[in-house]
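Narrative of accomplishments. A recurring question from our advisory board has been how the design workflow behaves on a single, concrete structure rather than in aggregate. To address it, we present the structure tokens for one chain from the evaluation set, followed by the sequence designed for it. No filtering or post-editing was applied between the two.
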């Protein structure tokens, strides 16, 4: 199994985000998309896509509407995307993506998460060179061969494709997420997308012991409590979950 299999295993292993955290994450993305462009999703494709993802994640309509209305007003917080990277338990590599209106505050909070769990925050580029920034799409409804043929005909640059039972996962260029989806939908318009995102995948995974896994879970719990944190990525190979 390749990196696609590992990222699914990692997703299963980490603690689910609290609803308030999820609402905050999408709220900021919706606000920034509406403020930087048109607040009308019919004319702002970036905003439209974020709203679609928010609805798929069961974000309430009032949360979506409130952040669009907020973006229409004057003033308000100016959020900026920032990325922090460093070394976690067991010499693992971690990337933390944030959206913040106070970089100094966020840096201090993220650095504290690293130090309190035995890690160390690094400088820009100290970790990201060991990851690939890619599009990842998982779906049901097409076989691996059918999907590969469709993607080749659409001239999508796919670096990896694999199937696990009925789920097929495709990894491609970070800028090709929409092209990959469109190529698959052209073959079967009712295809079921399970996951569709641009993400960081490690070039290699490492195994860490139980104590370090506990520390990493503590790291995740701490970052989950921070509203500025959007996503956390690591190169940890989690053990299989016992059913």
């Amino acid at each position: 199994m390749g990196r696609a299999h590992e990222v699914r295993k990692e997703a299963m292993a980490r603690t689910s985000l609290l609803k308030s955290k999820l609402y905050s994450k999408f709220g900021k993305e919706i606000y920034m998309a509406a403020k930087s462009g048109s607040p009308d999703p019919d004319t702002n494709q970036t905003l439209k896509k974020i709203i679609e993802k928010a609805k798929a994640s069961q974000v309430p309509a009032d949360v979506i509407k409130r952040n669009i209305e907020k973006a229409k007003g004057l003033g308000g917080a100016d959020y900026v995307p920032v990325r922090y990277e460093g070394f976690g338990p067991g010499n693992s590599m971690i990337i933390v993506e944030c959206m913040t209106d106070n970089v100094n505050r966020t840096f201090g909070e993220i650095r504290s998460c690293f130090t309190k769990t035995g890690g160390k925050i690094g400088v820009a580029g100290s970790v990201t060179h060991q990851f690939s920034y890619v599009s990842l799409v998982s779906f049901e409804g097409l076989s691996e061969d059918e999907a590969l043929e469709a993607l080749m005909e659409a001239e999508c640059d796919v670096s990896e494709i694999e199937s696990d039972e009925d789920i097929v996962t495709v990894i491609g260029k970070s800028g090709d997420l929409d092209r990959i989806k469109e190529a698959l939908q052209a073959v079967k318009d009712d295809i079921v997308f399970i996951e569709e995102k641009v993400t960081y995948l490690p070039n290699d995974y490492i195994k860490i012991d139980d104590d370090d896994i506990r520390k990493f879970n503590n790291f995740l719990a701490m970052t989950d409590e921070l509203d500025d944190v959007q996503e956390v990525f690591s190169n940890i190979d989690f053990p299989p979950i016992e059913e």
